[in-house]
Structures are given as structure tokens and as C-alpha cells.
Amino acid sequence: MNRLKVExxxxxxxxxxxxxxxxxxxxxxxxxxxxxxxxxxxxxxVAGIQCFKWGYHLLDDTVEVEILKNDGDFVEAGETIxxxxxxxxSLLSGERVLLNLVQRMSAIATLTSKCVxxxxxxxxxxxxxxxxxxxxxxxxxxxxxxxxxxxxxIGLYDAVMLKDNHIAAAGSISNAVDKVRKSxxxxxxxxxxxxxxxxxxxAIQAQPHVIMFDNQTPETMTRWAKxxxxxxxxxxxxxxxxxKLEAYRHTGVDVISIGALTHSVSNLxxxxxxxxxxxxxxxx
Length: 284
Description:
This protein is of the alpha/beta class. It has two domains: 128 residues, Alpha-Beta Complex (Aldehyde Oxidoreductase, domain 3); 149 residues, TIM Barrel, CATH 3.20.20.70. It contains ten helices and twelve strands. A six-stranded parallel sheet has the order 6-11-10-9-8-7. The longest helix is centred in the middle third of the chain and has 32 residues. The mean pLDDT is 95.
């Protein structure tokens, strides 16, 4: 992740939660120091761990963060991933925001890793979609990469995808591809969504960079993939999730896009706990 962009986002997240000040911090003096550990309470794949270091750096540059795991590592339940030292008020003020973010990212990385393992293909890639949480796309797409997947286009600005409404408005696949190709530079990739075999043949003639088979059975995709020349990549999409993934293993498509990687995950359970000595310091 780009640190500048991450820190800009983290500033907004922390301001949303802390506002003018953390009023619970009246419990502590600036000299009250403590130590905390962050642990996985269930097994999974780490993603976004640097957010602890960058987030606490923004909040209080006296806080020391020791990273014990790397993004992409599989962590067993109970394992410690981060140790943090510094003013107790700062540790607690940043706790919820940073945990929320890393819990979600790690859940996405964990699900992605399971999908990659279930598919078990050296050819077909698992990719995400634009079905991300507004404001969190950078983090969620990074988490997919940490889990062994790949990113589809980041937004509307970096690749063309001509879906059913684009094609209907343009009059045909050929018209849509031709208009886009004439308007954009040669560095921009063009993808076309097809829902019928007639559309497939028209798309092949138009020669986009990618043809997406939308909401088709594995059997249909297997047959269609054989019709597409090797110069055009193929993508399977539409309601595919972890439970259905194995059926698509031998379709021959280059890419399987899964919206569920980012829109249907439940946060991984991760906790931050102050050490007993820190709690004693608060009581004193």
C-alpha cells in the first residue's frame, strides 16, 4: 500500500472516532505508560499489519510498535502479531480504529487464501471486484493481494468494462468497443461482458483485451473458453463463491472474479490487551 495514501485515510478514520479528544483519557496522565499486545483470537491470514505502526505514528510519535508477523502470514488463534508501547491514553485512543481495519483486511485475506487453495489452479487467477466498502477500497484490494489473489480494475478510471447497459446504449458490442477504442489511448484495456453465445462471437470479432462470461454454468464456460483465441483473456463472473468454486477449476478461464471476497466477509476476531503492569499503573 502507498503509505501517503494510507496515512491520509487513517487521519480521517481517527478524527471520525476521536473528534476533538478522547474524553475517556482523563483517567490517565501523559506520563502513564503501558504495553499492549495484539492477538488473533481465531486462525487466519494477516493483512494490513503496518496500519498499526502508521496509525500510531500519526496519533503519537512516541508510541513504539513492534511488528511480529508479515502480511500474508497464516496465524494460529492465540498468536501475538504486534507489541505496542507508549502512553496508555494514546494506545487506547487508536485501538478501535486500527483493530477494525486490520480485522476486516485479515478476514478478506483469509477468505481469498481459502478460495485460492480451493480452486487449486496454477493457471486461473482469483480476482476481486469493485464491490468494496466505500472509503476502504485501497485497503480491501490490498487484503486480496495479501491472501494470494489479484486485483481487477481499481475503479472506473483505469480500465474499460462494457456491461449490458453500455452495450444496449451503444447499440451493439461492436459499436461500443469501436467507440471506446477510438476515444482512449492504447494503454487502456477493454473488457466486454457477454451473456449469450451470439454475443460471444460478436465480442471475439471486436477483439477486446478480455471477455467476461457472466452468470454461466461451468459447462458453458468450459465450452466458450475453447472458442476464444489465446490473444483474448477470459473471465468467469456472477455469483461465484467459495462453496461453488471447485466446479470452475477445469473451465479453462484465465480469471475468476468474486465479489464475495469483499462484500460478504465477517471480520476476523482480533484483540488488543494491555499487560497487567499497565493496568496496575492505571490503578496507581
